[in-house]
Each structure stands twice: as structure tokens, then as C-alpha cells.
């Protein structure tokens, strides 16, 4: 596999991996006796290998997103990995619209519009970026052929509790000394106390909530029409042409994105007549379904992609 990275000059970074020449053949996820026998094989109707766009969760590091990329790259798919900057997700949400447009431009510049496209979206951070990419495709009547969206721990409604948990996880991942532990001292003088991440996350969540409500009010006054309180509300109305089929990977053990939110969104898209498959893992935490259920997770994705590429209706699970 050959991997390149890119940056468009304004906070949008991505990493793309292409198949090696030996595996870059006209390909499809065709049917087999079992998913374990899944391979990319020649199909005259498909001249390019599938391309999978992975959109990371808030605070996601690319080394973690790259592990998910191997699910696809080892089968000969092109993969592109991108995560929206934290400041755009929390404070400068007006920039998200531009990020969506620029990511679409990159897909076109890389000629990925010539490939069948799948999006793999992680948590609300990935869902928020996907929303803006889909809106950009809709505005431009983009020729990109989206065959499906794989939703991992997403989408969920905006709640104070969810924001607090997300910020706490980000703080403790970036600075482990803020989490439970012995703290940080110089001699007998404490510099950081264990568990400081929790009160900091509460304070940040309060500030972010006030900022967000003020932003909604200003937009409503400027446009003279009500604005949705949930920034992901527009996901409900994205046309099928820009989503394709849907695969939901979620768990009731997820404390950040509630299972009922995922199920509500899945039911809504199913009511629109779209193809929806859902896999419910009973015990895995937020964006931890793959580490906890590696084989079942990969098999669900392979079966979903194979059905979408062959034009068959995915089987609900």
C-alpha cells in the first residue's frame, strides 16, 4: 500500500492509502459462501476499487483511525482518513461548512469520484463533518457515487452529558495526569490532582453550551427564522443519493451516544425507504466495538459492502 498525506492550508489534514499495483484490479465485494472467504475479485461492472472515507471522532488521533483503515486496505480498497479539528467542532462551527466543501474538493482532485464511495463515520464528530460533506455534494450536484455510510457509535442527540463525557475523554487522552491516578507533584507540592479532568470538563461543557446557544440565537436573528438546536438535525433530511445504504454499529453500553438515538435515526432513514442494516453489540463502549468484537465487526462491514456493491438489498441484523 502507498500512503500519502495532505493539508489544504486551513486546518484540513487527511491521509490517503492506495492499493499496491498487484491488488489494484477492477474489483467488487462479490458474494461468497461465507464472509471469511471475502476477497476483491474482478467484476466488469466495477472499473475502480471501492474508496472508503473514514471520518474520525472528536479528538481522534490518526494512528487510531489508521487501525480501522486496515479493515478496508487489506481488501484492496482506497482509504482516506480525516478528522475535523477540535476547535471547529466545539468553538468555530461556522468553519465546518468550509471544511466539508474542501474535503469534497480533495475527493474530486484525487479522482475518487471515479470510485464507488463509502463513508465510515465515527461518533458525532465524524457525523458532523459528514453532514457538511453531504451538504456540499448536494449543493454542487456532485457526481460522487455514494453507495453507503457506516455509522460507528453515531449519530446521537446533543446533550450536556454527552458533551461533558466527550470533553472529559479528550482531556484525559491528551493529558493522562488529569485522569484518575497519583497526580503530579514536585516534592511535596502538588501541581495536578488526580481526577481534575472531570471538573475541567464540566466547566468547559458549560462554556461550550452557552457559546452554542448564543450562536444559535445570533443565527436565528440574522436569518429571521428559527435555527435547529441540534447541529446534526439536518442529517435527517440528507437525500438518499448522498448516503446510499446505511450500516449502524452501536451498543447500549455506550455512555456517550445513546442506543435509542442511533435506533431513532436508523428507523427514520428506514421509513424513507432506504436500506438499513444495524448491528447491536451489547457490551462495547463508545467507538470500542472493533477492539471488543473484531471478527464480528469486520464481517458486518464486509457483508454490507458486498451487498451494496452487488446491488443486493443488505440483510438487517
From TrEMBL:
One of its GO terms (cellular component) is nuclear outer membrane. It comes from Thrips palmi (Melon thrips). This is Transmembrane protein 53. It is a single-pass membrane protein. It is found in: Nucleus outer membrane. Belongs to the TMEM53 family. Keywords: Membrane, Nucleus, Transmembrane, Transmembrane helix. The keyword Transmembrane helix applies.
Amino acid at each position: 500500500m502507498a500512503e500519502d498525506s495532505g493539508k489544504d492550508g486551513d486546518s484540513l489534514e487527511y491521509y490517503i492509502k492506495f492499493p499496491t499495483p498487484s491488488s489494484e484490479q477492477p474489483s467488487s465485494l462479490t458474494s461468497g459462501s461465507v464472509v471469511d472467504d471475502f476477497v476483491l475479485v474482478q467484476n466488469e461492472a466495477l472499473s475502480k476499487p471501492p474508496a472508503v472515507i473514514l471520518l474520525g471522532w472528536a479528538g481522534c488521533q490518526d494512528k487510531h483511525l489508521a487501525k480501522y483503515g486496515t479493515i478496508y486496505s487489506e481488501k484492496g480498497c482506497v482509504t482516506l482518513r480525516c478528522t475535523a479539528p477540535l476547535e471547529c467542532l466545539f468553538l468555530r462551527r461556522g468553519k465546518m461548512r468550509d471544511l466539508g466543501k474542501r474535503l469534497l474538493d480533495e475527493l474530486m482532485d484525487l479522482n475518487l469520484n471515479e470510485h464507488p464511495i463509502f463513508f465510515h463515520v465515527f461518533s458525532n464528530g465524524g457525523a458532523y463533518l459528514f453532514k457538511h460533506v453531504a451538504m456540499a455534494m448536494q449543493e454542487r450536484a456532485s457526481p460522487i457515487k455514494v453507495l453507503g455510510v457506516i455509522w460507528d457509535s453515531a449519530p446521537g442527540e446533543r446533550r450536556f452529558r454527552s458533551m461533558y463525557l466527550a470533553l472529559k475523554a479528550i482531556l484525559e487522552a491528551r493529558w493522562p495526569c488529569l485522569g484518575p491516578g497519583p497526580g503530579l507533584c514536585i516534592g511535596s507540592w502538588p501541581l495536578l490532582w488526580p481526577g481534575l479532568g472531570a471538573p475541567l470538563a464540566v466547566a468547559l461543557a458549560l462554556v461550550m453550551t452557552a457559546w452554542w446557544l448564543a450562536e444559535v440565537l445570533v443565527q436565528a436573528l440574522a436569518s429571521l427564522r428559527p435555527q435547529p438546536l441540534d447541529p446534526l438535525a439536518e442529517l435527517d433530511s440528507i437525500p438518499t443519493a448522498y448516503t446510499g445504504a446505511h450500516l449502524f454499529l452501536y451498543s447500549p453500553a455506550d455512555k456517550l451516544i445513546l442506543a435509542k438515538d442511533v435506533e431513532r435515526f436508523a428507523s427514520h432513514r428506514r421509513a424513507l425507504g432506504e436500506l438499513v442494516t444495524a448491528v447491536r453489540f451489547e457490551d462495547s463502549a463508545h467507538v470500542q466495538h472493533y477492539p471488543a468484537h473484531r471478527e464480528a465487526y469486520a464481517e458486518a462491514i464486509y457483508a454490507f459492502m458486498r451487498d451494496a456493491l452487488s446491488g443486493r438489498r443488505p440483510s438487517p441484523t
